[in-house]
Amino acid sequence: MEDYKTGLFDVDIKVNNIKENLKLSVNLLSKTKSIFHSTYVLNEDFINIKSKINNVDIWSDEEPNLYNLRIQLIDGKKVIEESNIKIGFRRIEIRDG
Predict the structure, then answer these.
(1) Any bridge partners for residue 27, and if so which?
(2) Pairing mode, strands 46-53 and 78-87
(3) Could you report the per-residue pLDDT of 48-93, keeping only the tens digit for each?
(4) Residue 6: pLDDT above 80?
(5) Residues 38, 26: contact at Cβ < 8 Å?
(6) CB neighbours (10 Å) of residue 33?
(7) pLDDT for 3
(8) Given 10, 14, 34, 69, which residue has the most CB atoms within 10 angstroms?
(9) How far apart, in Å, are the Cα atoms of 60 and each of 38, 57, 68?
(10) String of b and e for 53-84 (b: at least 16 CB within 10 Å)?
């Protein structure tokens, strides 16, 4: 996040008991809109997702900007499990440590 406005979205997801036709929907939502969305066909029980997100609102003590990460496990057209997690983007820097 060199410019303090581009966030690195990096998430590891492990799914137990995968079977044929399972998909994983990953949606990152701000207060007003979706800023990242993708759907993956599960061929393995582990998936790593990385993306740069432009124009993020940085989390800080003064302004705790949070996003909702919605992960859905889909079997055919039916959502069989859903998790919603609050996440934030922040920069941590140690100089002359």
Answers:
(1) 37, 70
(2) unpaired
(3) 999 999 999 999 889 899 999 999 999 999 999 999 999 999 888 8
(4) yes
(5) yes
(6) 6
(7) 59
(8) 69
(9) 27, 9, 16
(10) beebbebeeeeeeebebbbbbbeeeeeeeeee
Rg of the chain taking only CA atoms, in angstroms: 16
- 13: CB partners within 8 A, 6+ apart: 24, 26, 46, 47, 48, 49, 71
* pLDDT tops 80 at residue 2: no
Residue type at position 26: V
Which single residue is written with the structure tokens 């998790």?
83
What mean pLDDT do residues 19-29 have? 94
Token pair listed for 93? 């820097």
